[in-house]
Amino acid sequence: MAGTMRGVYTNLTDIRYRVFEEVARIAYEGGDIERKIDHLPYDVLPGDLATYRESIFLERAVIGERIRLTMGLPLQEVDQPTTLSEGLAAASRPETYYQPPLINIIKFACNACEDNVYRVERGVCQGCLAHPCREICPKHAISFKGKKAYIDQDLCIKCGRCAQVCPYQAIHHYTRPCAEACGMHAIGSDEHGRADIDYERCVSCGQCLVNCPFGAIADKSQIFQVIQAINAGEEVIAAVAPAFVGQFGGKGNVGKLREAFKLLGFSGVEEVALGADLCAIQEAEDFLEEVPDKLPFMGTSCCPAWSVMAKKEFPEHAGCISMALTPMVLTARLIRTQHPQAKIVFVGPCAAKKLEAMRASVKSEVDFVLTFEEMAGMMAARDIDYLSLEDDNKSDFDVASADGRGFAVAGGVAKAVVNAIHVRHPELEVKVENAEGLEACREMMKKAVKGAYDGYLLEGMACPGGCVAGAGTLQPINKSKAAVRAYARRSPHKVATDNEFRSLIGELEYDSDGNRVDHEVDETDAAQRSGE
Q1: 3 state SS of 462
Q2: What is the pTM of this model?
Q3: Would you call 241 helix, strand, or coil by DSSP?
Q4: What's the pLDDT band for 396 if we cut at 50, 70, 90?
């Protein structure tokens, strides 16, 4: 189920993009921002006829909440009178981070979908004489009414045996799409049957928000704050994740990308594949030093949702997850060696990176995080037609290796680490296991702690398909995979160790006090997840 809506342009997609575009437009224009924000739902949905929901008033209320989240503001209390722009003064400061929680459910937009319920499709049920559904039910929850099967929900234990034996496939298993997409089992129901997030479990992967067909789930954004920094004349540099290829159209034309960022007001743009190379080198060194003498196995570090899940649910093996800083952080630190006063904006596919950038334990050098969707909204606000832009006639980003660029696709991280190991030890066999999606990652860890993967390098990716399937992407997953791989082949370097900045790894991995920085989950992280 997860990912079935990816790359399908729907009415909800249009609304989501429009909100990003209009908030960005208001931020760029300035003026009476408060008045513009309060009027924005009427600009997005003019007229008096509903298009998507039962009333135009409900539609505008949902749009209003999405606007607030895009501004980095919390959802409103619907039982109290308020204005849409309330709290805008605090959000207008360029340095403002959104307040947790990051992923939010707009309750009155939720359809209160049934979750994990088996029901008989009475129009399909043939009332057969064998009654296999009734005979196999261990709790006697199935009876026949009017010659049609009926399931008593109070007795049903959701085992699904009835659905398996029905010769007409007349018994259907209903699941809540957002809950099914959540690999952390963090979504339940409130007292009204609406979706509810357990923030103690949520790792902010964002798969719920892209799989909700009612547009009831959204994450907070920093579009407004980034543009405020640009308007203030700050040096703002974009660090673009390897999954960028093809997201805005075309086939990885870096000249157009640089021109687009220039028109948006950015001072420069660098590719995060540079940091991916450094991450791969560091993880290769750690693997050689620690596995199997000190650690039974080693898991990769680059996906924050996977690493948090692994450390949280398997705390006794938390040390088996690599301590290497992620490509995002390593790239930001590298940029800051040459631009110490710059504001650095990570632009990528991932909602969880927004949470990572806030961690005290990471001591991140990243000032803001934007998704590709949000960046596309900024382009639309500035009337930038990406494909029609002139190429700046400079070469591609020419530092990162093909392996570093391959981080964006599932399996690419492990491949990069193994290739870096083989540069030093070509004879060494490195066993690898990788998992896509948090459910699969959990199963991989369960097997690993039981000894099934002793001596292995484990790659975990929270999003099925890898970073190209992140919550903030614009293109179908398979199309993105092909584009990233084609772009990677254009690199003049094959493996991470060809990176000319590899000698700086030691400096970038340590803080100003000489302590190595890692990704341990600390109390600050827990508070950010829970919304405290």
Answers
A1: coil
A2: 0.91
A3: coil
A4: low
